[in-house]
Amino acid sequence: MSDTAPAAPQFADLGLPAPLLEALNSLGYETPSPIQAEAIPTLLAGEDLLGLAQTGTGKTAAFSLPLLAGIDVSLRATQALILTPTRELALQVAEALQRYAQNMRGFSVLALYGGSPFAPQFKALERGAHVVVATPGRLTDHMRRGSIKFDNIRFLVLDEADEMLKMGFADDLEAVFEKVPEHTQKALFSATMPAGVRTVARNHMREPKEIRLHSGKSSSLDTITQKVWEVANHHKLDAMTRLLEVEPVEAMIVFVRTKTASLELSERLEARGFAAAALNGDLSQQLREQVVDRLKRGLLDIVVATDVAARGLDVERISHVLNYDLPHDSESYVHRIGRTGRAGRSGTAILFATPRERRLLHLLEKATGQKIEQQALPTADAVRSGRLSKLATRLQTAAEGTGSLHQQLVEELLQVTNMEPLELAAALLAILPGAKTLIEPVADLPVAPPRREREMGDDRDAGLVRYKVQGGRSNNLMPKPLVDVLVKHGGLRRQQIGHIKMFTEHTGVYLPQLDQSVLNKLAGVEVNGVALQIREWPLPPGEVERPRSPRPPRKDFAGKPRTSKPARRA
């Protein structure tokens, strides 16, 4: 019996036609990724596919290559439809298809997305684009106008289906499924597998083969080193400046929570001399494409982005991802850090966490299956050493381009100025912008104080069960209307309801154990226009929410405890 491990499959072993293999060879593709090795033969065999795969695993090629293998270039009609949640991802997929189809003469692909004029899209559809890559909103616009034909569609792909459902495109997807021919082959890819995705697969796919690329950990993140810097909110900008001075950053994406924050931070970085720009949903499509293009060409080194704007962004230069603000959930974190470490390259993901946010780290570690390394803030000596090293590199690079003319100029300067060589070098450094920072004093950033452990607890939530309610701050959901509904329709007393914690898209509330009959009564009741979806939401194993401390008595301006006001005299 041989102990030799079977050889890894090659693209040539997967059944792809010669023009595609030649294209892959010219692009430098050698060995298929795990998702490609499983998905390509399945799709070439005509089977439906349900793929659970994180971003960065190579799933674009996994569905694009078998799709292209089935395209009849001589037929000027749309034969494949790919749906993506964002414009950026649609453009990325369309560009990938063009690269893979470089040897398919006459092939055409069209990206349909909002924010771009309809007229060119009408013309391209009329000419007969072989593959259409679209966002659901813009596709349904074309469906209403009758400008896209479904008669010849043989292949339908849903990329990042979980995101499309999360963004509210469920009805649009249903409309597409109704329009495509019954015999259409379908492939659905998702980073997670919530109930909504399962329902779509069950209702619209024919016994799909299921491929799970990971279980609890993402192989796409194996090339990414994760670090956390504990830093107070008001020191984040200084900490980021230190990071850029000590880390070997080629290009970086910085994630913030809001559009306003992306603009403010990019402006402050520009003021400090960094080549930075904002990327958010308020920018026109043209401006967003310009930012990405400048990043690719090396004209920008830092892009400050929101989650939506950066989804699907794939730029090889990105060596670092910085979570300037903590993401709202672990899925967003995985998508964020997946912007680096692409195509087998190594990458670094850094997270700024305040002491209050420290307890959330284990949830992110669980989502990635990897340890997030705790790293101390760079010292003043480390910053100065980093500055010196970068200046030395610049000087060495410049020295390679000098010649006899430069040396002659130095000799002339020595004669004219009557300086010693060391004096002349020091004077030249003094007028060199990059050297000035070495003279400036560097102070150590204050370490964020550790979070004080609570000694006295509040047992208000004792014996209660944590429930998750659909809707949060983004829906203007407030605790009072929620409590009113729970009392009126759930039969609860106000005294039975524990703490309520609001998040962006959902709300956590502590309640007594509810019977299924009570949950049925609550189902569908509207709170602020949002249908009340409520389910148990137990804490992860080993996690315990800290009890709340009773607040100390408030003090007046003189520093004395407030006393109750005397009753007014009648």
UniProtKB/TrEMBL annotation:
InterPro entries: DbpA/CsdA_RNA-bd_dom (IPR005580), DEAD/DEAH_box_helicase_dom (IPR011545), DEAD/DEAH_RhlB (IPR044742), DEAD_box_RNA_helicases (IPR050547), DeaD_dimer (IPR057325), Helicase_ATP-bd (IPR014001), Helicase_C-like (IPR001650), Nucleotide-bd_a/b_plait_sf (IPR012677). A motif (Q motif) lies at residues 9-37. Its EC number is 3.6.4.13. Residues 236-383 form the Helicase C-terminal domain. The keyword Coiled coil does not apply. It comes from the Bacteria. This is RNA helicase. Belongs to the DEAD box helicase family. The keyword Cytoplasm applies. Residues 40-211 form the Helicase ATP-binding domain. Residues 537-570 are annotated as: Disordered. Residues 543-559 have a biased composition (Basic and acidic residues).
